[in-house]
Amino acid sequence: MLYKIAHILRDKLSWLWDIIEWFNGVIFNLRYGKKIRGFSFKTIPDGYEIAPINKIPTSDLVTFFNNQPEDAFMYFRPHGFDTKSIRLLQRNKAFLGYVLKDKKKGTIAGYCFNRCFSHGQGFRGRMVDVDYRGKGLGTAMNKILNEVGFGIGLRLFESVSKDNVASYRSALSASNVKVVKELPHNELYLEILPD
Questions:
Q1: Backbone phi and psi for residue 165, each to the nearest 5 degrees, phi listed first
Q2: Domain hosting residue 155, numbered range
Q3: pLDDT class for 2, splitting at 50, 70, 90?
Q4: What number is the average pLDDT over the span 118-132?
């Protein structure tokens, strides 16, 4: 039910969604901010570094999304990818967004996030750069999202299309999952379970 309401607000009433996200961010920060500030990652893959999106220039993130092929967005539409949308996410305390950067090249190899809610739930998502596909980074980012999400005490969820084979396999290989509900369009609503 929450999933449906969130998508209606985001897609049809974006101005109301922005207000709710701001308010949620304030409450989330009061409840989880100290845990997040004290958190450090342990599962970063070799050759990469992780950075919160608020430490990355907005233009670099917009360029990352603009450089992805159209098929990358077939199953991935969690937010806008323009400058204004990215800036809102960078300021949102309840949007735990990260990039995985290639240490040698200095380029963004992947993007991942837990969209969190003040009542203790998070919804994870990720995108691997087209030039880094097939290297296990989707699975690595799922583990990163699990680490931070469970590390601060959230219940984690994700929706994934069975037609998006790479993302579906990544979700299953990185995590213990429980199918909460089958959604339209061959999608599954998953709860991610702690190991």
A1: -55, -45
A2: 2-193
A3: low
A4: 95
